[in-house]
Every structure is written in structure tokens, then in C-alpha cells.
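Justification of computing resources. Each target in the renewal requires a structure prediction run like the one illustrated here; the chain below, 516 residues long, is used simply to show the kind of job we budget for.
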Amino acid sequence: MSTDVKQARWPRQIPYIIASEACERFSFYGMRNILTPFLMTALLLAVPEHLRAGEAKDVFHSFVIGVYFFPLLGGWLADRYLGKYNTILWLSIVYVIGHLFLALFETSKEGFYTGLFLIALGSGGIKPLVSAFMGDQFDQSNKALAQKAFDIFYFTINFGSFFASLLMPLTLKHFGAAVAFGIPGVLMALATLFFWLGRKRYVHIAPEPKDPHSFLKVVKTALLSKEQGKANGGLYLALVGFALALFSLSQTATLGFVAAFCLALVLVMGFGGAGAAIQLERARGVHPDIAVDGVRSVLRILILFALVTPFWSLFDQKASTWILQANEMSKPDWFEPAMMQALNPLLVMLLIPFNHMVLYPLLERCGVRITALRRMGAGIAFAGFSWIVIGSVQLAMDGGTVMSIVWQVLPYALLTFGEVLVSATGLEFAYSQAPAAMKGTITSFWQLSVTVGNLWVLLANNSIRSETVLSHVASTGLSQTAFLMFFFAGFALVAAAIFALYARSYTMLDNYRAAA
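Resulting C-alpha cells:
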């Protein structure tokens, strides 16, 4: 270990951020985990029973989509106007007010839905900024400690999630909605207080002034600039993406609004980004080389983010597909299938210290260099392996074998190991690779990858309803459930292979600020 690493010191302000995050995550998962049961048993009782589950799912997924779209707003506000600290503080207050609305308006749809909107705005708005703000507290003198800090950060997320998953459903059952939604509100108020208490110790990086050479302006110049004797292939590609996005929006009746809107966004970003990359050199001269090179680096980062989206397709289905499977498995009478969800944060809290104290040192001694990109690629692959196991269990069940719910422990362990490799590493990777002026925005794109991952699930579930796909599934001899499980396993493994190939040519950047 180098002398510089030995002498590196932890920033004294980090505990305030960690404590705030632990309370905020309990707050968020505490209300989210009881949202659907509350909708089904209280707020939506006036809805006919055969329609109630569908409406509850619509409300829940609309809320989650909002949570993962508002990071774009929070990142933009922080990078351009308010700075990270002020954006986090003010949106945290909005977040607390949202919880208050849930507790006060448990019988009013309008009031309750307003509370959900405020929580989505607050939670989503601060989501990319807290990790980026923590990264701001490190510099070249102690950047070697940053990955450990991000792992501790991720540990606290799961610490809060674990206890929220166990306690809040029981609170709703025994004490009612006002108390059950009020407790997360109190925790969010504490999170805001802890964050505020560290205000005099934080490193505050001011937002960048309006930049004539911003990312979007460089992209616009690249797409619209003409070059003598060359076709505007990049512009035409971007226009194709825009046309496909309009077509996607026209399919709302078939795909549903959420899927159609998300797909349109992906098409604009994907085709527009590819088009800009093709013509990016045309922006030189109009914009300085550092701005053009910065845009190129961001586009390369977004390719890696795109390759991570299949991981989220698999990860988020543990709360849907895996629970549905658990309903059909043998288990004690007292055990509810959804209680398996607590296994995920528990395993995260065990795996993070195990990786750092045992696995990574062992691999380093064996000559295997543990880089961020290798971790992330391996994590995507482990998610694929978990779905091969869960698919094999489904095959046995389809064949008439009664399977114990204990069989889900192995796929949960594999998936959670993949999560630790992908998600905890990705937070630090996103921060370290982002140019200084775009750290909040880039981190918000990392959050957006979760939304895109869920989009693939919606599209896959929509596709399997078609007669053509159904006939193909039938010809394989697999049930629809097993077919989709193996499809998603293959989806992740192919993405992991492409990720590994692309990562070999990726040049790591060092965008930590200089030591004070």
C-alpha cells in the first residue's frame, strides 16, 4: 500500500451524510413497501374488486417511474442553479411535506396522491445528488477511500431497507395508515436534520455558470453543422430516432402510457447520442476541444449505463415475478412470500464487508486486478446466473414437483451479489468519470438506467401476449413463466459479454477535484 493511501484521512463530514441516508432510506422503503397493501385494503375500496389490483399497480408504478425520472430535474437544478447542498436541503423539505400529506389524507385520493407526487419529486430529485455530494467531499489526497465510502453509503441504504421491510407492514396492520405513513415522515425529518447539521463542514462546489459550450449545445452543434463533401448521417440518424419516438407515443393504447413514454425517451437519447457521436468532430472550432472531448467521454459513459440496464430488468423483478413464484411454493403457514424481500438487504450488509475484507484481497493476491468495470460486468453476469437457477426451479414446479421456498435463497444470494458488484460500484464510477460540470446530471442518468431496465420488462411482458410469441413459447415446451425467466437470464448474460468487450477499450478517467 502506498504512503499516500496510508496517510489519507476520512473527511469528518461523511458521518452526517451517512446518517442522513440511513434515515431517508428507511423513510422511502418504509412507505413504498406498504403502499400497495394500503391501496388494496383502504384507499381503493370503492373501486370494483376485479379492477382494484390493476389500479393499485398503476398508482404504484406511476409513483416509481416518477421517482426515477425526477433525478434529471434534481441534477439539472444542482448543476446549473442551486448547487448540490441547497437542492438536497430544499427537496428534502418537500419530501417531508409529502409524507405529512400521506399521514393526514389517508382517506382522500386527491390529498394522498399529492403526497405521492411530492415524495416522488423530493426522493427522485435528491437521489443522484446525495452520492455525488458525498463524492465532492473527497479529493486527490484521499480518493482511494472514496470506494469504501460509497460501499458504506450503500450499506446504510440496505440497513434502512431491511428494518423498514420487516417493521412497516406490521405497523400498518396493527396501528393503521396514519401511524404507518407518519413514522417514515419522522425518519425523513431526521434525515433532513442530520444533513443540515453538517452544513459548516461540507465542501461546497458552486454550480457552473451558464455555459455556451454545455453538453447539449455541443451535441446540437455537432448534429446541425454541415461539412463540405460529407453527408449528415448523424443528423439523419437522430431524426430517425425522433420519428420512432413519435411512433412509440402513438402506441400508448397498446403499450400503455408509461412504456410508450419511456421507449420514446430511450429512442431519442439512443439515436440522438449515436448521431452526435458520428458528427462530433464538426463541433471543434465552434466549441473548445475540452468541451468536445467532454461530450465524447459522456457519450461513452452512457453506453456503459445502457449495457447495465438489463441488470435492473432482472433485479426489480424479485419484487414481482419471484414473489409470484413464491406464492406457489411450500412454506410455513406464518410466512408471507413478500418477507423474502428482507433477505436482499440483509445479504447486502453481509456481502459488502465480506468482499472488502476477504474476497477482493484474496483475488488481488491471486493476481486478479479488481477494477470498477470488472466488478460491474461480473455483477450483470451473476444476475443472469440467478435467473438460470430460478428458471430451473420453475421447471421443476411446472413438472409437478413441490418446491420449498428455501430454494429461492440461492438465486437471492446470486442476485444480491450481482447487485453489490453493480450498484455500489456504479455510484462511485458515475461520479469519478463525470466531468465537473455534469456530476449531478451524469449520476441522474445512472438512476435513469433503472427506469430503462423496467421498460424492458414492460415490453417483454407486452410482447409475450401476442399470438406469434405465444405459439413459439408453446413449441419450446416451456411455460410462459419459465420461458421469460430463461429469456431474461440470456438477456443479462449477453449484456455482460458485450459490457466486458466494450470495457476493454474504455479509458478510465480521474475527475476528482484537486487536493486543497
